[in-house]
């Protein structure tokens, strides 16, 4: 019997999350950018299973179901499938996630995200009904816990937490906001307090901004909880891209989104630094979102191997800090088999006509 | 019955190659960098099958067997496996490639690369014996054609061509050299002439340098053949990275190799430009090497869709030139749903402390 | 009879300041970097006169005496001169400034800066005695007004204002602080209030940071004064360098200071933007500090020519927005003779191995 | 009696040239960009004298007369003056140059540049008549030697050398060409041979490209002369700007020309490297052109102080390799008082939205 998410966190364990699916599967040929719907769970289950498995091998303790934007209205709008329902996709996604999770000791998490309805009508009953419908599948398929993620308005996230709490399953809630606060300018500290009061046991940040910025926002949430004398576990699942010039609207404003983000991709060394910073701030659920590939998750697992007590399976194919280069035939490549080299490298872009920063558009 | 590689090229068809395996599978967690041995063909066949399948869906007409560095001496040196022989790996790799190739109309190609023995002893008989041993598996498994690839010395590549020709199967030969010539300063034109005289029906360039540089080198090969009144098909399988500052020693000299190449990754738009340039030069076998992900191969297929007469399966999840963004909710993202936008974008690196070019080390 | 500085500002006129002397004269060969003492006023008066004259021709309404770091202790420490006293230098500098100022309608301003004594002992009487000694020369030479400039501690600047006020001459006070506040974390708004209460009629910012940052800080000062229902004229004399990564310690922390600041130099177009921003914020005394060359001051005069009602003499050798290129023989250079071209140009550094931002050292 | 230019070079001395005038005086407010005519020699003689003097103090052994574009047709075209003739300007310029040169031991050089007539008609007699007219002033004013400079066609430069040789004065000839050759694709080696055969005793390169590129071209000239068994002194007076992306058309093609070249300006440390490279190639007349400020010339003098046996006057205000920072109050600034620091610094541009390289326009 696996330990649950709260048991792990209560025991002080570091929980590694998985990476994002839509960007990675877009590049593999299974998701359409702009639409981002997950019909591949039904149409190409092997491809979804494979990437789940790669995250698992990289050390992920949680497999999130591949159910992003999987509601019938979204599917209809995108026009990508006509013969498959959201329910079919969601059920298939739960089954796939469970199959892979059971290959290791991972937990399955089902997630809900912000709704177009909230922005249009702000009707509490309508919004809650949507979450309830998604929840039904997660309950039927018995996921291990639930994640409220990718919310720009803390008010809507509170409603989601309230709905998901009814199941009795643990609920984590992550907003996609910046250190300045949510889109209504509620501060990160206040957001955290409201989410915990709504019933979330785990709170934090996901998507929209780069790792160190997201860690900074979670730190502000933590301070808010401390001021309010509340307790909750902390979680972070940031972008795998550098976004230094982004404002609170996040990386959708970058001119490179979504088809030219290559140069912004983080290295494994960037990821180790992120994992350490997150750990030092007190975050114990550390994962990734859009832009995270399996080797990024492995880097988190490796940075925190001592704290966790073990290396992930995929580290059999990776030595820390480039040590695998020691046997290289070129002496100048061998010279790179050390930590200081990779930690201090200021990598060149190879694009002399391109700048370092863009002007966000919005 | 599939048409062979020469039938296709003779008929004027554009043949799309697959992408590189070792870098992509390193990031997925199945190959150890620095060692680059392909034991995953035996240990994780599903992972190898999956990436083959992604290239196939992206439009690849050729699946290369995942047999890079698969010789017993290399395996022993790396120490990654003790209970599997090179023969086992090579046979498994052939079977996997065949299985996936048959899911579409793709051909299977077996490849041989330069040997350490050549550099150490330059013994013709020893070097040829190594090629012969690798060839035995390809013959047994009945690959469709053979590729001599990743040679820095045209002299050694000639020997490889001579050995492979004995099978009667078509032979392609690609060197990893720059427009300046091979490592012994034999010009690209002379290299091409020698390879064709040795028996290659297809000649060109692979790896080491970025696409436009490799296309330039193939153009020099073509001109050499014309001067010598020889005929051969042209092929190119370059890096998927920008390497503007690299000299003829290639990207191993870059300080970022192999663990910090992220910023240099080409976009799909870079790839379309490459495909067009290659086509314009007269190259008809157009593929990729290290750094190519499935969506890069798809970009080649899409750029040349009109010439080929069809789009690849994975284009069901991709609209040309960002058109899939037309339905995006944010107006500034919708404004990106057009060709001029992506063709002219000078993407920012998001790394203000990093330069554009490195100083090659060697 | 010239109008005084307060008459001009009270009448709503835009007053253009001059540029910095020590960096410019270092490059011309008359000031030693690191020491920055002004013995050239005695040793090479023609060189000093010439640069004063260039600023005057560029539109400067104020000529500041070249007396920076001109105290006997500083001169002794530097060892640059043994036979000249600070008094001799200061008197010569006043005479030179007056001679050039009278060639146009400019005013002469004498300035005092922060003292090492303040940092070491914080003795009010000692610090004030130093300001008094400097003041004696300015009174004897009858400068038109006085400037308290380059103070990191508002507390010390208050003392300087108090001393200078005793002369009855107008007193301007500019701190070299950031939007975060002075070095003791007194906010810009509070700094402004304290300086005005101490007797300054003009307050603002000089040196240490780039123009737009300094304008931002002056805006905060203005808001502080408004909150306190105080009135004063606003002034800004920023660096002529881009310093986006600098913290409140300013450009001395940049690795490039002082011998490799070339790439950070602002263009004339940057300067026009700065002049406009400063004007829009309500600043009416707009000049420059280190890094300003004569053509930078001319750019300020040109941007505000309509508000001022005239162009400066040096504009006889300059047409706005590159219009002088209209007669160029090369068509592609002629195409640059327009405002949109220069306003939107993202100029390249010509240094592909150099980054965009440094890491401040301190 | 001063030693002549050939005596100095024959004796193996290093001759330091002066810097460019038009860009420097444009920034000081005395030259109009695009027009570049030198009426300031009559209208503002003190300003011209001052910059001559600064170059002299920086170590220049030659003062070039400020007579660029000073012909009646150019003056008329520009419309900058109506009451002054080219003859008046040229005579005034000679007098000013002589006055300053005599303050030190410097020589006065008069120069002629390429003519619009050559491009339009290629009439030898017309072109030669123009050179003859300019020469008359130089003879009357008895300059020490003559410089044929800024020619893109070696054919026209030959004519100029032939005309200037008639005076019996030494003649130097520098082309503004790239390592690829002149604009008619005559190689640098062949150009040098033709210039020497026409009568030039000194040959080399000036303007258009950055120092290391110009040194490379002079090296090719030297090799051409050696192959032809001819002897001549070598000279180089490059741009003071980095132009890595420029082709043979030079920096006029850069989008930043002429009003946004700031970021490309070379540092004093760049200049020392240039002086050393030029010296190592065998060049003994080493100066500058557009973009050189007095401190750049001083850097050449300092780098070659040991070879020359003395430091220039302006080095009294400058210590080698930043040593003047040793007495700085901030420890992190003091740490910069050493050669390795400045030699290895990769200076940041402070412009995160700007690229490293532009696309030349022409």
From TrEMBL, chains A, B, C, D:
Binding residues for Zn(2+): 207, 289-290
Q: In which pathway does it act?
A: Amino-acid biosynthesis; L-methionine biosynthesis via de novo pathway; L-methionine from L-homocysteine (BhmT route): step 1/1
- Pfam annotation, one family: S-methyl_trans
Cofactor binding annotation: Binds 1 zinc ion per subunit.
Q: Enumerate the UniProt keywords alphabetically.
A: Metal-binding, Methyltransferase, Transferase, Zinc
Q: Where is the Hcy-binding domain?
A: 3-304
State the Gene Ontology BP annotations. Answer: methylation
Complex formation: Homotetramer.
Listed name of the protein: Hcy-binding domain-containing protein
């Amino acid at each position: 019997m696996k330990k649950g998410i709260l048991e792990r966190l209560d025991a002080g364990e570091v929980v590694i999350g998985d990476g994002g699916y839509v960007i990675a599967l877009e590049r593999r040929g299974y998701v359409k950018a702009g639409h981002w719907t997950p019909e591949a769970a039904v149409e190409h289950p092997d491809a979804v299973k494979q990437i789940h498995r790669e995250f698992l091998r990289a050390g992920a303790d949680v497999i999130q179901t591949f159910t992003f934007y999987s509601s019938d209205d979204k599917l209809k709008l995108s026009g990508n499938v006509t013969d498959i329902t959201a329910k079919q996709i969601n059920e298939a996604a739960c089954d796939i996630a469970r199959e892979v999770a059971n290959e290791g000791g991972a937990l399955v998490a089902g997630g809900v995200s912000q709704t177009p309805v909230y922005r249009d009508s702000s009707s509490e009953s309508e919004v809650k009904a949507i979450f309830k419908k998604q929840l039904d599948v997660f309950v039927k398929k018995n996921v291990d816990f639930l994640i409220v993620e990718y919310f720009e308005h803390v008010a809507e996230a509170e409603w989601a937490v309230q709905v998901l709490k009814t199941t009795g399953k643990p609920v984590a809630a992550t907003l996609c906001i910046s250190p300045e606060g949510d889109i209504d300018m509620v501060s990160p500290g206040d957001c955290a307090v409201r989410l915990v009061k709504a019933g979330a046991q785990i709170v934090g940040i996901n998507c929209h901004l780069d790792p160190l910025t997201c860690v900074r926002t979670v730190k502000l949430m933590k301070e808010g909880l401390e001021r309010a004398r509340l307790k909750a576990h902390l979680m972070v699942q940031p972008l795998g891209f550098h976004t230094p010039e982004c404002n609170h609207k996040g990386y959708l404003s970058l001119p490179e989104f979504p088809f030219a983000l290559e140069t912004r991709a983080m290295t494994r060394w960037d990821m180790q630094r992120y994992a350490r910073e997150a750990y030092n701030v007190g975050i114990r659920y550390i994962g990734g979102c859009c832009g995270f590939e399996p080797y990024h998750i492995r880097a988190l697992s490796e940075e925190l191997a001592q704290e966790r007590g073990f290396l992930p399976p995929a580290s059999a194919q990776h030595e820390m800090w480039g040590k695998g280069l020691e046997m290289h035939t070129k002496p100048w490549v061998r010279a790179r088999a050390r930590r200081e080299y990779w930690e201090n490298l200021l990598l060149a872009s190879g694009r002399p006509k391109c700048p370092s920063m863009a002007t966000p558009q919005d």
